[in-house]
Amino acid sequence: MKILLINPPNCGRSIPEERFGITSIKQIFRGEPLALETLAGNLDTHEVAILDLKVEPENLDATLIDFQPDLVGVTAVTCEANTACHIARRVKACTSARVVVGGIHASSDPEFFNRPEIDFVVVGIGKASFRELVDALAARQRPSIPGVACTCPGQALQFVPRKFSALDLVEAKSPRYDLVKANRHHYTLLGLPLGFVSSAFGCPYDCNFCCIANQSGGKYLACSIQSVIRDIQLLGEVPFIRMVDANTFGNPTHARLLCQGLREAGIKKDFFGDVRSDTVVRHPELLREWREAGLRTVVIGFEEITDAGLSAMNKANGVAENREAIRILRELGITIVGDFIVSPDYDHADFDNLLGFLAENPIDLPIFTVMTPLPGTALHRAMKDQILNHDLDYYTLSNAVLPTRLEEGEFYRRYAELFHLTHPKAKI
Fold first, then answer.
1. Domain check: are 250 and 301 in the same one?
2. Which residues pair with 120 in a beta bridge?
3. Are both 147 and 198 inside the same structural domain?
4. Quick one: DSSP state of residue 221?
5. Does residue 427 sit within a domain?
6. Nearest-CA neighbor of 39 among 117, 122, 128?
7. Cβ 301 vs Cβ 249: under 8 Å
8. pTM
9. What is the rounded distance in angstroms from the CA atom of residue 363 to the CA atom of residue 98?
10. Is residue 110 domain-resident?
11. How far apart are CA 262 and CA 2, in angstroms?
C-alpha cells in the first residue's frame, strides 16, 4: 500500500491577538513529527511518505495528487482537530484513499472524529494497532482491532479499548527519521538543530488538566535502554536531543539505567527532558548523574504557587518541593523551563503573586499557559457547563475558553505582561 502520514500545519487561533492586538507568545522551537516517524517505522513492506505541513503548509493538494496514496493518516492535538477534519475532506476530494486520524485528541475524544470524511480513528499508542489496521486493509478484511474505531456517522462510535503493554511500543522497529531528512534544518530550538526521541509513554500521575493518561490507558511504559540509545544514534550529528516524554524520569530506576547506557555508549549530546519537582527533590543524585551525561535543560510543570491550587489540580507535590527543586537544579547548573497555569479566575493579586514567586525563585524560562479544560480530562468533565468557547481552534492553552474574572482585555494584558517581565536571559 501507499501510505501518506500528515502532520497538520500551525493552525491554532489567538483571542489576545485577534481581539486585542497582543502578540507576546513567540515560537521558540519547531519539532519533527516523531509520532508519524514512529508509525512509519513499523510499516515496512509498504511505501510510506510523511508530509509535514508545519514546514510545507501549501503542499497538501500537490502531494495528494502526486503521491496518490491508498491510505492517509493524520495526527492532531486538540487545537489541530478541526484542521485534521479539513485535511480529511481534501484527501477525499483529491484521492480515493481511506483516512485514519490518531494522536492525542483522537485518544481523548474519539467521538469528535466520527465524521463522513474519516474512516478510522486510532485511540492511544498506535504503532502496533495502526500496522494491524494496514494489514487488514491490505488483505481486504473488515478491520476488528482493539484501539481502532470504524467511524459510523450518526451513531455512537463503537470500538474495543486496547490494553496497552510494552508490545505496543514495537521496539524492534526504529522511527523513520530519514523520511523528514529534507526538513531536518527546520527542526530547531532557539536556532540549535534539534532531534526528538521517546524514552517512555504515558505518565504514572493523574493531574486533572492533563490528557496524557489517555495515550496509554493510564499506564507508564518505559522503552528499552537499547532502543532509546539506537534512536539517539540514528539522529547522527544532531547535537540537541529533546526527550519527548510526558515524564522522562517517571521511573527513576529506568532513568538511571538509561543514563548509564548513554555514558557507556560514549554518546555526547545535550539533552532536554521532563521531570517532576518531587522527583528532583527525592533523587537529586539522579539529576546530577544526568547532568554529567549531558542533561542541560528540564521542563517542570510547577503549575501553581499555592498548595491549595496544586491540590485542586490533583498534583501530588507541593510548593515547598517546587522551591527546593528549583534550588537543586540551579545548584546543578541545569536550565529550568517552568510551566505555570494561569486560571481565568485570576485577579490582579493573583498575577502579582505569581510575579512575586518568580522573583523569589528565579527560573530560566517561565512558560505561562491559560487553564483549558481539554476534552477527555477530569477538568473538562467538571467544568464543561462553564465553557463559553467550544471552537477547538482556540484550545491552544493561550486562550481563556472559560469566563475571566477580570475584564477580558485586562486579563490578556496581565497575561502578556507575564512574558514581558520574565523575558528569558539564559540559554537553553
1. yes
2. 100, 150
3. no
4. E
5. no
6. 128
7. no
8. 0.95
9. 47
10. yes
11. 37
> Is residue 158 located within the same domain as residue 193?
no
- For residue 346, what is its C-alpha cell? 485570576
Q: How far apart are CA 176 and CA 38, in angstroms?
A: 6
The verdict on 266 and 318 lying in the same domain is yes
Encode pLDDT of 159-210 as tens digits: 999 999 999 999 999 999 999 999 999 998 877 899 999 999 998 788 999 9
Whether 180 is covered by a domain: the verdict is no
Looking at the structure, do residues 123 and 46 belong to the same domain, yes or no?
yes
Number of domains in the chain: 2
pLDDT above 80 for 423: no
* Residue 141 shares a structural domain with residue 194: no
Enclosing domain of residue 305:
187-421
Distance from C-alpha of 231 to C-alpha of 169, rounded to nearest angstrom? 13
Which of 112, 130, 165 terminates a domain? The answer is 165
How many whole angstroms separate alpha carbon 339 and alpha carbon 299?
Answer: 7
194 and 131 co-located in one domain: no
- 331-362 per-position pLDDT tens digit: 999 999 999 999 999 999 999 999 999 999 99
At position 407, the amino acid (one-letter code) is E
Which 3-state string (H, E, C) describes 251-297? CHHHHHHHHHHHHHCCCCCEEEEECCHHHHHHCHHHHHHHHHHCEEE
The count of other CB atoms within 10 Å of the CB of residue 140 is: 6
The answer for residues whose C-beta is within 8 angstroms of residue 269's C-beta and 6 or more apart is: 232, 238, 239, 240, 241, 262, 294
As a whole number of angstroms, the distance between CA 33 and CA 51 comes to 9
| Assigned domain for 245 exists | yes
d(CA 368, CA 370): 7
Indicate if 106 and 199 belong to the same structural domain: no
- Cell triple for residue 169? 511500543
List Cβ neighbours of 313 (8 Å cut-off, separation of 6 or more).
Answer: 207, 208, 209, 303, 304, 341
Placement of cell 512558560 in the chain: 367
